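Annotated sample (chain length 566).
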Amino acid sequence: MPVNTALCRLRRLARKIWPGVLIVLAMLPSLYWIANDHHVWPWDPAWYGEVSVDLWFRLTRRFSKWAPAMLNAFASKSPGIAWLGQFFVPLGRAVGSIETGLLCSIIATQIGSLVLFYNTAKELAPGRRLVAAAGVLLFASAPLFVAMSHQYFPEPLQLFGVTYFYFLAAAGHRIHRLTLLGNLLLATAVALLAKMTSPIYCGLPGLIGAYALIQKRVAGNHASLKGPRWGWLVVLAGAVLSVLCAAWYARNFAALRGTLKQQTSLEFTSDYGRPGSFPEKFSYWLHALQWSFQLPWVIAGQLLLVGAGLALSRTWVRAGKINPLETCEWRFNLLAICSVIHILAVLSLCSLNYNEENRYLLPLLPAVATISLWVICKIRQPWLLGGVLVLLILQWIAVCSQSMGGRHMDGSICSYWVVPFDHDRIPGNEAARIVRDTFDPAAKSRFSIVGVELPWLNATTLSFFAAKAQLKTGKRSYYSSLGYKENDTNAAWARVQDPKYQYFISLDETAQPANPNFLNGASLPVLRRIRDDSDFIRQPFSSTLGVVLYRKNTESPKLEPPGTDR
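Output written by the structure step:
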């Protein structure tokens, strides 16, 4: 008896912990990637990182300025990634890399998405643990999911918000109304703080959750989410976050409207994609959806196994060998239909623009995974369902292997965002040295202008390095560019002549790109004018990458940091 009792307890423990073990194992390669990567964060990730570090600095050093900084964060972009990331800055300082600490916030968000979708799958297919495991693997093995676990972008937080709504749509009928209300508030705030485009990914699941709230019925028992005390805490948390979200949007509405107008304009989007008719663009996005979430051979294998499962199930039902369960209830069917609608809506909106940035597809993962689960649930034979799990595990291995520098898969098969970690520390070291050499705590002005736009050398990236340096020095320097897409040499030169800029940073002519892109039209002409201008003195700076540093002869009066210079 004691042995049998111990075995029973061990089985119960294994049933409780296996989902957590599966999720942790799924994210371990991403943690390894983060620990070994040393690439310099380019434009957008650097800006997100800069604001995250600045918020932590104000919270710990200038608390009176923290709340205003929270409400003014980004202005033109939703602030969720920085609001969350700031609390991971001390972790980054502890491990010796701010970037590692900030990316741990991404890992935490991705783990949250896996937990939510695991519970969503349990609700949609109760009693079928293999289906729930398939739900986790559909997420964890998706190439874009793996890739975005390595980057400091807001899409993982948006994915968490969208998955939150899918869970509430699936489980809302079993959650206490008070707790459901709090969760709906939380999900709404998280999704909108992640990105303002979130409703197009989760609007219909949100309506299903709201319908469950209006029904005024509670079925079953969901102890972990029930109870008046816990319910009031969830409502309070949801209300507080919703108020903060509303305050941020009210404060920055004008800037958001301007950004939305700019990012949907032909002038802006034409530089990040290709023109084409709606059918051509829709076809492109359908292919992008495939290589972002599943490899072709995995899709083919799943379809084969599902077909075999359907054929065998039909035969067995007729023979009376099994009593089929209702695995696809009306909520499952409704959620699958909503998923199809959201996918078509997002792909249609993408097809109306030039922009072909595939990371915008990440929040569609719950929709894609829900449809896949709906199909997988047709399989009644455990060994066939096990075959699907094996395929997903093999996809996870293949994608993680590519991210570790293994065999490279073509961009038409796997997301182009799946890239190996970078061992090269030289660009990061030189960027840190630039910030150090252009920082003078006694100077009246600490502004510099960066005359080139490269992923590792630009004003936003140097601003991020300056924000990191501020954690040690308590003061920082500021950086600006020649102007976004500035091709007018005279306009760029007039900007350089502004007395607030003391340093000019660029690359030597031989180190600049032979064919400059749309961001560097004025880079080389301005460098040549500065090189021949006696008002600029070249500073000693040994660089293996060709960095050149110039300082103006005269000092400028002390100026406050520019609020809009970037």
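Annotation: The radius of gyration is 26 Å.
Annotation: Confidence is low (pLDDT under 50) at residues 218-226, 315-328, 556-560, 562-566.
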